[in-house]
Specification:
mainly alpha; 8 helices; about 0% strand
């Protein structure tokens, strides 16, 4: 159980907190409820501050599920952000989603190891360049911007930057509140296995939509 931010159960919440809980579970699935009866990942923080949490939940659902960007590319950007901040829960959830949506294992592993990924697809290379530039410098140079704008258009560029910003915020929450991984899982950066990445025994189909 998290020591910095205790898990809140549904029956402990007021009406505003319960509305945030319901919105989170409706858009992301009931796998988010843990063995303590609280919400896993960043969502426990959402119900501690429901006035903030309801907006974060809505923004998260929008940048994940309702943009013009292909899911493969979104997940690539998310793991780039999560790896930069070593947000364990974010990586645990999204490395598998990236693989599931078509990002190559070698690319995922390199990003997790802090190495230049061997990207062969032009669209992935462009999206990675934007996300990595943002997490390194907070800026995007003109050549990178032009290539990404040609690929994604104006709408997609706004969506991509918003996605990276949202998952930076989520990474900060996960790290600040020391949000635990689910039981039986292996941290990626604090306890590396022989391949350099922590592996989770829970199959990809059971990964909650964080």
């Amino acid at each position: 159980m998290s020591q910095r931010l205790p898990f809140l159960r549904y029956d402990e919440l007021d009406s505003e907190g319960r509305q945030v809980w319901d919105d989170v579970v409706e858009t992301r699935g009931d796998l988010l409820v843990n063995e303590h009866g609280g919400l896993v990942g960043p969502f426990n923080a959402f119900v501690h501050a429901p006035a903030v949490g309801r907006h974060l939940s809505s923004l998260g659902a929008t940048v994940r599920y309702r943009t013009s960007i292909e899911r493969r590319l979104s997940e690539l950007a998310i793991i780039t952000v999560g790896a930069r901040w070593k947000a364990e829960f974010e990586w645990w959830a999204h490395a598998r989603m990236a693989r599931r949506h078509g990002v190559a294992d070698a690319v995922v592993e390199a990003i997790g190891a802090g190495e230049e990924p061997p990207i062969t697809a032009d669209d992935e290379r462009i999206v990675y360049a934007v996300a990595s530039a943002l997490v390194r410098t907070g800026k995007v140079d003109q050549d990178t911007f032009d290539a990404a704008s040609e690929l994604l258009g104006d709408q997609g560029m706004v969506e991509l930057v918003a996605l990276c910003g949202y998952y930076t915020l989520i990474s900060f929450m996960l790290n600040t509140f020391d949000v635990p991984l689910p039981p039986g899982t292996t941290p990626t950066w604090s306890d590396m296995n022989s391949s350099g990445l922590g592996l989770n025994p829970i199959p990809p189909s059971n990964v909650p939509e964080a």
